[in-house]
Design brief:
Aspartate Aminotransferase, domain 1; 4-stranded mixed sheet; 2 domains; Aspartate Aminotransferase, domain 2; about 450 residues; alpha/beta; binds pyridoxal-5'-phosphate
């Protein structure tokens, strides 16, 4: 396996108080011109990034455990991505696939059809964002089934456009006062092992609970699609109990319902497999992808059964920028990087390294309620000692502590009490260990 080469020194270094003068000056400019509805978690401005390191404009080096929200799995300046982008922009930046098509789009579709679960005949369409992919999966499912209802789950996150806001569960900050939302969206109970009232409930039983809700409230014959994140992202890195997803997928098949896996966050090696559905042998009818697909360039896709996808009339799907040639070149370079460096294997190593430490920490620290996740999509759920009450305060304090020490870390969860780890998959073992030392100190400082 090829050895990962880094352009920037892989070392955390905080040179002074931050935000430093340059970041502060940029922030002043920003406040005068950028709408405050867009918030940033870290108060410094990025200057350079490579491997597991991000430099700010004042010379600080942070360890990146966010990867731009699970996007730069291959690193933020992976050589194969940079090279492919440079090569493409020198020829043409855009022609619109709906006007004059080009090979890169076709190649990305070939790769998606090959890499997504199942060896059935598939077709792909490319878009720009995760939300756009999910919207289009819903369009295809409705058209192909002639039905209206879409089933989504508690704690789900599917995006910020009107339809995907409606599909998303959490009100603040995603939905509050942004309605009205699209009709024919129904929410049913998720499998959330740590927070089940009956801790004995199995995955198939949790699926049955959801199915019963669908049958009672909608009727299977009205349902176009069931939309599920195989591991929920923003909702709290919730890994459903084993058997939940397969039972839902089987039932959907029996009822002629399209099973859509939203793999926008969990796809492309993040969980130690190309797609998280694979961990349970589920073959979704449609897979929505984005985030990790193109090493940071905006690209998303839906890949589905040929008979569903090709049910749509010519011209029914598309968009001006969808599958932009530069983004496609980046995706081809990113996927090659995933193969060359076995990033599925790397994600599994990251899981072993991180989970070993977190599990032993959890035994000694009573604010850790749960540690969970797969591959390099890992989380800690924080609670008040001796209870399962969400501890959002400690979560915030941990993220702030880490940031101050030069480790960029994200939080998530319906209750805001989950610290999530999403390192670039190319992060080195020593650098990750250093970040985990900081995280451990941050957690211990709360008790
Ligand atoms: C981020 C995310 C989306 C939305 O993707 P955007 O590119 O931000 O529109 C949809 N689904 C899941 C699971 C996500 O994590």
């Amino acid at each position: 396996m090829a050895e990962i080469q880094y352009r920037l020194e892989q070392k955390r270094r905080i040179v002074g108080d931050f935000p430093g003068p340059k970041s502060s000056a940029l922030n002043e400019r920003r406040q005068a011109v950028v709408a405050s509805g867009v918030a940033s978690g870290v108060p410094v401005y990025a200057a350079d990034a490579d491997g597991g390191i991000l430099h700010d404009v004042d010379g600080n080096s942070f360890i990146d455990l966010a990867a731009g929200i699970a996007v730069t799995g291959v690193g933020a300046s992976a050589p194969a991505v940079v090279g492919a982008v440079k090569e493409q922009v020198e020829h043409f930046t855009h022609s619109c696939f709906m006007v004059t098509p080009y090979e890169g789009y076709v190649r990305v579709a070939e790769l998606l059809n090959e890499l997504t679960p199942g060896d059935h005949e598939k077709r792909s369409v490319l878009f720009n964002s995760g939300a756009e992919a999910v919207e289009n999966a819903v369009k295809v499912a409705r058209l192909a089934t002639g039905r209206d209802a879409i089933v989504a789950f508690d704690h789900a996150y599917h995006g910020r456009t009107n339809l995907t806001m409606g599909l998303t569960a959490k009100s603040m900050p995603y939905k509050a006062n942004f309605g009205p939302f699209a009709p024919e969206i129904y929410r049913v109970p998720m499998s959330y092992p740590y927070r089940e009232e009956n801790p004995e409930i199995t995955g198939p039983e949790a699926a049955q609970r959801a199915i019963l809700a669908i049958e009672k409230q909608i009727g299977a014959e009205s349902v176009a699609a069931i939309l599920l994140e195989p591991i929920q992202g923003e909702g709290g890195f919730i890994v459903p109990a084993e058997g939940f997803m397969p039972a839902l997928a089987d039932w959907a098949k029996e009822k002629g319902i399209v099973f859509i896996a939203d793999e926008v966050q969990s796809g492309f090696c993040r969980t130690g497999a190309w797609f998280a559905s694979e961990h349970e042998g589920v073959v979704p009818d449609i897979v929505a992808t984005a985030k990790g697909i193109a090493g940071g360039m905006p690209l998303s896709a839906i890949t589905g059964r040929a008979e569903l996808m090709d049910a749509v009339h010519p011209g029914g799907l598309g968009g001006t920028y969808g599958g932009n040639p530069v983004a496609c070149a980046a995706a081809i370079g990113a996927i090659q990087t995933m193969k060359d460096y076995d990033l599925n294997g790397r994600a599994k190593q990251i899981e072993t390294q991180v989970m070993g430490r977190l599990r032993s920490l959890a035994r000694n620290v009573d604010i850790i309620g749960d540690v969970r996740g797969r591959g390099a999509m890992l989380a800690i759920e924080l609670v008040n000692p001796g209870t399962k009450e969400p501890n959002a305060e400690a979560t915030k304090a941990i993220a702030a502590f880490c940031q101050k020490e030069g480790v960029i870390i994200l939080t998530c969860g319906t209750y805001g009490n989950v610290v999530r780890l999403l390192p670039p998959l190319v992060i080195g073992e020593d650098l990750l260990d250093d970040a985990l030392d900081v995280l451990e100190a941050a957690i211990r400082a709360q008790v």
